[in-house]
Amino acid sequence: MVRMFILWCAILLSLNATDAYDKNCVKCHASLPISLEKIFMQYLAAYGGKNNVKVGLDHYFRYPAKDISVMPSEFLNKYGVYYHYKNNDNELKKAIDIYWEKYKVIGRLK
Ligand code: HEC
């Protein structure tokens, strides 16, 4: 019984975690010409490891600016600098964690 409960909690937590990225990131980015995967590789190249990438993303989301962006300047001229932080610290942090987990392996293979 207790085991079932713990299992359910784990499933619910993981569903919730998947949501934070799918819900907050994927839809809008699907309409942009540079994929989230490509952007991730730019971050990996610019920031190196796990902690630096996560801190770099978090920082950009709070304080977006052209001169620290990894996006090409033509892209920024067209779409503008986007302020990702929407008053929901926890969701954003979860989304960054999922973003890292999703693409880190592909990053390492290259
Ligand atoms: C409503 C649209 C929208 C949503 C939602 C959105 N983004 Fe973005 N994102 C953009 C646009 C537009 C840019 C390009 C402008 C820029 O880089 O500031 C961008 C840029 C980025 C960049 C590159 C930052 C840089 O260095 O310029 C990353 C990484 C990113 N998004 C990840 C995410 C993640 C992760 C989420 C979910 C938490 C998310 N985005 C949600 C529109 C969105």
Strand/helix succession = HHHHH
Which distinct ligands sit in these coordinates? heme C
Total of DSSP H or I helical runs spanning 4+ residues? 5
Q: Please tell me the overall pLDDT.
A: 88
Number of strands: 0
> Compute the gyration radius: what is it?
16 Å
Helix content class: over 70%
- Give unreliable regions as ranges: none
Percentage of β-strand residues: under 5%
Q: How many domains make up the coordinates?
A: 1
Helix/strand structural class: mainly alpha
Biggest sheet features: none
Structural write-up:
With 110 residues, the chain is mainly α. It contains 5 helices and no strands. It has helices spanning 2-30, 36-47, 50-62, 73-79, 89-109. α1 (2-30) packs across α5 (89-109). The longest helix is centred in the first third of the chain and has 29 residues, at 2-30. It starts with a helix and ends with a helix. Bound molecules: heme C. Heme C (HEC) binds next to α1, α2, α3, α4 and α5.
